[in-house]
Amino acid sequence: MIISNANKSNLPNILQLQYAAYQSEAEIYQEIIPPLKQSLSELEDGFNKGIFLKAVIGEMFVASVRAVKRSVG
Questions:
Q1: Between the CA atoms of 70, 35, 14 and 9, what dihedral angle is there, to the nearest 10 degrees?
Q2: Would you state the pLDDT for residue 26?
Q3: How far apart are CA 43 and CA 8, in angstroms?
Q4: pLDDT at position 24, please?
Q5: pLDDT in tens, 12-31
């Protein structure tokens, strides 16, 4: 597994991974939850405001995490 910074061209893969990851949670709540409503353009907006990391095995995306620094107060 290789963990590295994601780039903008990775966002469709990250969005696909996000959709797959949240299906079971949506079933529990019996509704479409926010991660399943997010569009590629919304994901790109978040990408421009923070940092995204990806974990890949070969060519397969297996995980992603994102962070945004916010001021307190």
A1: -70
A2: 80
A3: 10
A4: 85
A5: 999 999 999 888 888 888 88
Q: Is residue 68 a contact partner of residue 49, using CB atoms and an 8 Å limit?
A: yes
How is residue 7 written in tokens? 């780039």
Taking a C-beta distance cutoff of 8 angstroms, is the pair 50, 66 a contact? yes
Name every residue whose Cβ is closer than 8 Å to that of residue 59 and which is 6 or more positions away in sequence.
none
Ramachandran angles phi, psi of 72, nearest 5°: -100, 130
Cα–Cα dist 9/50, whole Å: 16
Q: Which residue shows structure tokens 């962070």?
A: 67
**Structure tokens of 63?**
């995980």
Give 11-33 as a 3 state SS string.
Answer: HHHHHHHHHHHHHHHHHHHCCCC
